[in-house]
Amino acid sequence: MHMSLLVSTNGRIELEDFARSALPSGRYKRVLVKPNWVIHESEPGFPIRALITSPQLLKAVIEACFEKYPELESLTVGDVPLQTCEFEKMFAQSGLDKLREECAGKFGGRVRFLDLRRERYVKREGFLELDKRADGDPLGYALVRLDDRSLLEEVSDRAGSFRVSDYDPEETRSVHSPGSHSYLIARSVLDAELVINLPKMKTHQKSGVTGALKNLVGINGSKAYLVHHRLGSPSQGGDEFPERGSRLIRLQVRLREALQKRSRLLFRLGRRGWTALKKLAGIQTTATREALRAGKVYVGAGSWHGNDSIWRMVYDLNLILVFARKEGGVLADTPQREVVSIMDGIVAGEGNGPLQPLPVDAGVLLASSNPFLVDMAMAKLMGFDWRKIALLANHERFPWPVFGGFDPRGFDTVVDGVAGGRGVDDLPVLKPFLAPPGWIGHIELDTQNQAPTLSGS
Description:
Elements: E1 4-9, H1 15-22, E2 30-35, H2 48-51, H3 55-68, E3 74-79, H4 87-94, H5 96-107, E4 111-115, E5 120-124, E6 127-131, E7 141-145, E8 162-163, H6 169-175, E9 176-177, E10 180-186, H7 187-190, E11 194-198, E12 200-204, E13 208-210, E14 229-230, H8 247-259, H9 264-281, H10 289-293, H11 310-323, E15 329-330, E16 338-352, E17 356-360, E18 364-368, H12 371-382, H13 390-393, H14 401-404, E19 412-415, E20 418-422
Parallel strand pairs: 1-19, 2-3, 2-11, 3-4, 7-15, 11-16, 12-16
Antiparallel strand pairs: 1-18, 5-6, 7-10, 8-14, 9-10, 12-13, 16-17, 16-18, 19-20
Helix pairs in contact: 1-3, 8-9
């Protein structure tokens, strides 16, 4: 299959022109746009412009859809943010509230902005309490079974150790066991004929980078279904921490797992003790550039370069997006919807992403029908070697060869409207991004792999 990558640098192409060029041709009636709406801004050092997909790009994509698809009946913009995301605050901080009003006036009920979470939580002194007001997907959710087609099946002998931080491990184990792996997918996603994936260009503490592939965690209605790591060190069959990880942090993780969402009083007492201990140990939880370079930032469970679980879960979701039937159940044998990815690197994020991204004014847009291609290009632009990142290095193991079975040296780039070079290695390094703690010194490119300029620019 011939593939191409669209690249825009330094704002040389207008957003709507880029969106129009990236969208596939077709006669689509139902479109879902999947932005990255991870969380609201809570600290000015990690601003909203580096946290979520640009509202300006989202607006350009919506406008381009109605222009390109005259038969379009409904366009849904939806995501499953972090459980503690204050949805309306995020909208007000970013200007999404104004875009929502503008779309209502221009397109009426044909455009919907949805919070697709099945449940939300509020955080009080670090303790999570269920918020009963969650509405979720108005179309509901469908259980989609992968069973032995899941990439998690290879490590399911350790299914009892599958974990998602701050979620009930019993719920995770109930949907992931040997021979049985399921996800809870929003029906608004399954109902779409075309899905437009709008990831944010960021680093990620558990997967190294987050882009088109990782953005699909937001199609699953409950995070408890999303395996992030396995308990223990590699010698124990896990990938939670490296062999010589901090004993203090391991203890903190165990106590947090035991008390979070269970005992408010004990959790708060434990939290006070942890605050004192981390101060004595010089551990910082606010990931400034200085703290990252000094190696003092807290490294949580599964947040290191040896994480061997999260890429498997992400591959599962990408397979589901293409092949899951509208009604759910088992996967179909043929693709059920078209997918295109348009990455927002206007303001990118480095460091301890995705929740503490330090802003980088990158001025870049990337687009392709292949999410692996987008993410490999993103990694190169950041100064990372995709071969050192499990999420990308395992691309040939993706169960659909149209996505995963390609040569990263064998595709065309179209840069600022001009046909350019071929392959990831032909792309430049915009600037060496700071990797997340737990990844620093492990994924950066060797100097000889850095192309100085964009081919064709």
